[in-house]
């Protein structure tokens, strides 16, 4: 075909030539792949005698002959048609070709002289260019004089110029498919579509503009003659509910609203069962659990003003962040400074006690040497000890990480999380919905240590022992005289020190999975799922939990009726998987009144 030739076809696979992004260029590329002027189609040495002018024929050629008799080296029409019809033929059409492609190739064999530009412009009533990287509806589309159906779905069109639509579209076009493009301005798009007086079927789903809450209502009210929108019939009640909305279209904010809800987490392993009992010097270990998800950030709008206290961007703690960002040399200097500061504090607190005990400074130094860690001189060794942030806890490019509040372990952890996301930059939002969001369950482990070091042994302890001996002798004398023994004061249970210093949190990903959000792009208002991350329990851990619960029951048996605890046997062991409930809802207006009340600027 010539470069100016245009035609119709349903877009099949294949790449488009560089520098072309228009409808007409996509049509030309498809016609080129049909090879309508190359063997076995078109006119050439394989059928040239059929198209010789009458004045060139000899008297022998004027003698009637059998239809299948042809000149040497030429092919009959039936033989040429067989080459394009046979699936085994190298000239056969691709599997995804449609009936109109077959018709064009056979026409190019039977009557190749008809394959001209004027034929294409006047013949085609339907033009389908699907998934061809088209970005512009160009003015060459005006050459199609009888076009009634236009399908341009799954391209990258951002706007449609009404002036570039063929005049015959305005009395004739009944169906228009612009789904899955990059159209963002709903009001401008509807202004262009109002010129199509006979439009009955319209597809706009998959475009960023279809994500605004009033999309369907405004479209239905703006195009009164529309019967089907996005494969859903427009009902009379729907037209009534959104009546008059198009009169105030300019007042509506172009933004999308989503509500993310995270429910219960089940099937968590109680990791504290595996930890030993803490001694007086620690460490005292605490665990908390939370859920994270990533969501696209709004580059176009103002700073996100999320007022919900449950939502926060996950960041490392200051101490962890410092260790991650500093170089090994800086870490060494900081460690030495920290050791010196701690040494001064401990010396100050211990020296006052040592003066009372009569101890020398040597004992202070010996205590410090046993408690404080010695700074490492090797940068390589320190680099190995620096904490690493799990890449699974980092958001994807262009997204922000959100998380629920931290909660202690329970068999069922109710997150009770709800967050509204308002987004004005709709094109990245579409890409995010196609990619989906990643949901992660995280365990945070924090080790705490006493802020004040334990007391140092001194001669006072010997004096104390002597006092206890005298006390026992007095008690013996009292018993000999028949005096009553004073009531014993119960010993208080040993509690951890009130002042603790905490290590940077240790984060562990317990489960991670993708939640598919594409249904929100094709018109579904809600995605609700239970993310299943598999079983994290083991038979050994559940037996430890059983033993702990049994001890609790024995302690409370005297006070109240104990709950039954079912023993665990290996044969019928069926642990609950780790799951979390997730919902993402796309806000949609149900009436014109609601749209104006909520989104009027």
Automatic annotation (TrEMBL):
<keyword id="KW-0677">Repeat</keyword>
<keyword id="KW-0433">Leucine-rich repeat</keyword>
<feature type="region of interest" description="Disordered">
    <location>
        <begin position="460"/>
        <end position="502"/>
    </location>
</feature>
<protein>
    <submittedName>
        <fullName>Leucine rich repeat containing 43</fullName>
    </submittedName>
</protein>
<dbReference type="InterPro" id="IPR001611">
    <property type="entry name" value="Leu-rich_rpt"/>
</dbReference>
<dbReference type="InterPro" id="IPR050576">
    <property type="entry name" value="Cilia_flagella_integrity"/>
</dbReference>
<feature type="compositionally biased region" description="Basic and acidic residues">
    <location>
        <begin position="465"/>
        <end position="488"/>
    </location>
</feature>
<dbReference type="InterPro" id="IPR032675">
    <property type="entry name" value="LRR_dom_sf"/>
</dbReference>
<feature type="region of interest" description="Disordered">
    <location>
        <begin position="1"/>
        <end position="21"/>
    </location>
</feature>
């Amino acid at each position: 075909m010539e470069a100016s030739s245009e035609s119709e076809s349903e877009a099949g696979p294949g790449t488009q030539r560089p520098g072309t992004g228009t409808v007409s260029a996509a049509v030309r590329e498809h016609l080129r792949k049909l090879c309508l002027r190359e063997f076995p189609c078109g006119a050439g040495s394989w059928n040239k005698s059929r198209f010789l002018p009458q004045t060139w024929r000899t008297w022998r050629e004027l003698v009637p002959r059998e239809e299948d008799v042809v000149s040497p080296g030429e092919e009959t029409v039936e033989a040429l048609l067989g080459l394009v019809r046979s699936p085994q033929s190298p000239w056969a059409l691709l599997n995804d070709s449609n009936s109109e492609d077959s018709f064009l190739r056979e026409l190019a064999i039977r009557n190749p002289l008809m394959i001209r530009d004027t034929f294409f412009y006047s013949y085609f009533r339907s033009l389908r260019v699907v998934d061809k990287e088209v970005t512009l509806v160009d003015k060459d589309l005006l050459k199609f004089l009888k076009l009634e159906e236009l399908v341009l779905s799954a391209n990258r069109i951002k706007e449609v110029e009404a002036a570039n639509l063929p005049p015959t579209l305005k009395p004739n076009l009944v169906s228009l498919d612009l789904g899955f493009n990059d159209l963002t301005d709903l009001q401008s798009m509807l202004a262009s579509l109002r010129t199509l007086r006979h439009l009955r079927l319209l597809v706009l789903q998959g475009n960023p503009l279809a994500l605004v809450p009033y999309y369907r209502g405004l479209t239905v009210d703006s195009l009164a003659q529309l019967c089907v929108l996005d494969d859903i019939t427009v009902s009379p009640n729907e037209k009534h509910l959104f009546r008059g909305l198009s009169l105030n279209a300019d007042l509506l904010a172009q933004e999308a609203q989503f509500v993310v809800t995270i429910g219960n987490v089940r099937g968590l392993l109680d990791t504290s069962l595996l930890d030993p009992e803490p001694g007086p010097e620690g460490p005292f270990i605490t665990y908390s659990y939370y859920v994270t998800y990533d969501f696209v950030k709004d580059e176009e709008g103002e700073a996100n003003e999320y007022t919900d206290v449950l939502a926060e961007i996950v960041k490392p703690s200051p101490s962890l962040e410092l260790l991650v960002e500093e170089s090994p040399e800086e870490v060494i200097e900081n460690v030495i400074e920290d050791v010196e500061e701690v040494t001064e504090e401990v010396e100050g607190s211990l020296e006052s006690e040592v003066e009372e005990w009569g101890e020398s400074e040597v004992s202070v130094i010996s205590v410090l040497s046993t408690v404080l860690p010695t700074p490492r001189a090797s940068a390589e060794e320190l680099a190995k000890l620096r904490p690493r942030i799990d890449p699974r806890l980092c958001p994807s490019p262009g997204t922000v990480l959100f998380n629920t509040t931290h909660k202690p372990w329970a068999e069922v952890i109710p997150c009770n999380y709800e967050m509204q996301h308002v987004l004005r930059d709709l094109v990245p939002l579409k890409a995010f919905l196609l990619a989906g969001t990643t949901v992660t369950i995280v365990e945070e482990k924090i080790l705490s240590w006493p802020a004040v070091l334990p007391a140092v042994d001194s001669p006072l302890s010997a004096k104390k022992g002597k006092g206890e001996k005298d006390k026992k002798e007095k008690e013996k004398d009292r018993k000999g005289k028949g005096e009553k023994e004073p009531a014993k004061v119960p010993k208080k249970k040993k509690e951890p020190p009130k002042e603790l210093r905490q290590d940077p949190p240790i984060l562990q990903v317990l489960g991670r999975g993708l939640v598919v959000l594409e249904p929100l792009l094709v018109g579904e208002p809600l995605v609700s799922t239970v993310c299943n991350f598999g079983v994290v329990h083991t038979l050994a851990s559940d037996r430890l939990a059983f033993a702990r619960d049994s001890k609790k029951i024995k302690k409370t048996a005297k006070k109240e009726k104990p709950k039954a605890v079912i023993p665990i046997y290996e044969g019928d062991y069926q642990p609950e998987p780790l799951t979390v409930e997730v919902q993402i809802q796309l806000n949609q207006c149900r009436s014109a009144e609601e749209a104006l009340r909520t989104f009027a600027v």
